[in-house]
Amino acid sequence: MAMWCSRTALRRLQRVAVNSLNITGGPTSFVQREMSTLQRVYVTRQIPPEGLKILHESGQVQYELWDSDDVPVPRKELLQKVKGVDALVCVLTEKIDAELLDAAGPNLKVLSTMSVGFDHLNLEELKKRGIRVGYTPDVLTDSVAELTVALLLTTSRRLIEATHEAKTGGWGTWRTLWLCGHELANSTVGILGLGRIGVAIAERLAPFKVKKFIYTDMAPRPDLASIINAEFVSMDELAKQSDFLAVCCALTPETKEICNKDLFSKMKNTSIFINTSRGGVVNQEDLYEALSTGQIAGAGLDVTVPEPLPTSHPLFTLKNCVILPHIASASYSTRNAMSALAANNLLLGLQGKPMIKELKL
Ligand SMILES: O=CC(=O)O
């Protein structure tokens, strides 16, 4: 079943699939325009149509697709499919490690991930093999910032609890302190890891009359900080001063579980913790402890370890913890833009040209 298509099959596909983008036929689909000279690409997920259209219309590549968005390609299948390909489009559920790169072999020149995060990639192994890596920053900044603000307000104003109470009969008389939360007006907002997304979040929060923005990072980022008038502080000060602490850093060996007991214990018990970066930056046991003992007031998480977080996980038992299923960039326009950028990065990489967004390895 898994094979690159024949000329007859190709003509059929060109008629029914290439022009219409209506790809059918089980989890694995094959699309190509000509045999022989085209470079081979494996796409590990049914990515949004913009990106597939770009690959189709390039006339540069033939690609094979794991034609499902509901289940990731099984590892065994992935290891077989990548054999001999020139390039790979992946999403964040695929671990791109030495085993996979060995399975792909020496033809693999370009890896294009449809994500801003790259903790699923073994950059050292990619560098060692001279494989160029494209990723999709910037196009998702607005969507992620918007969702972060929504999650922050949902958590701080206890919206999930409130709708639950309204629906299940908990709504008695109007009460003076019932379902009170914490407001942004006059608050200090802390950003852990100031980049494009942190700036975009602060820009959206400023009209809520935030008093002060503070941030911490490996080093001061005056270029970005000046846009939002944010003050650089130590990690300790970030924990101590923030009424709202938004985590925006990448997951790296340095940031793994950087949000732990030590940080939570310094936060105010009225503080709200928000994470839309990667679950791995948080020690979830420590977070559970901080939330359940009232060390902090609430947490909003779009990312967890693992994903999906099992429904039996203790964090799901807490009223003051709002958990979303990793949807920060999930708007139609953004996901299409990510898909298009991933496709364009790949094509440029294969042409030996600079990609639009390329990771420096
Ligand atoms: O989390 C989403 C991404 O890295 O794009």
Describe what this molecule looks like in 3D.
Residues 149-328 form the D-isomer specific 2-hydroxyacid dehydrogenase NAD-binding domain. One of its GO terms (molecular function) is glyoxylate reductase (NADPH) activity. Keywords: Oxidoreductase. It comes from Scomber scombrus (Atlantic mackerel). This is Glyoxylate reductase/hydroxypyruvate reductase. By secondary structure, this protein is of the alpha/beta class. It has 13 helices and 13 strands. It has helices at residues 7-18, 49-58, 75-81, 98-104, 123-128, 141-156, 159-167, 196-205, 222-228, 235-241, 261-266, 284-292, 332-350, and strands at residues 28-31, 39-43, 61-66, 87-90, 110-113, 132-134, 188-192, 212-216, 230-232, 244-247, 272-275, 298-301, 321-323. Mean pLDDT is 92; it is low at 1-26. Bound molecules: glyoxylic acid. The site of glyoxylic acid has 6 residues, from loops.
Helix-strand layout with pairing:
Layout: H1 7-18, E1 28-31, E2 39-43, H2 49-58, E3 61-66, H3 75-81, E4 87-90, H4 98-104, E5 110-113, H5 123-128, E6 132-134, H6 141-156, H7 159-167, E7 188-192, H8 196-205, E8 212-216, H9 222-228, E9 230-232, H10 235-241, E10 244-247, H11 261-266, E11 272-275, H12 284-292, E12 298-301, E13 321-323, H13 332-350
Parallel strand pairs: 2-3, 2-4, 4-5, 5-6, 7-8, 7-10, 8-9, 10-11, 11-12, 12-13
Antiparallel strand pairs: 1-3
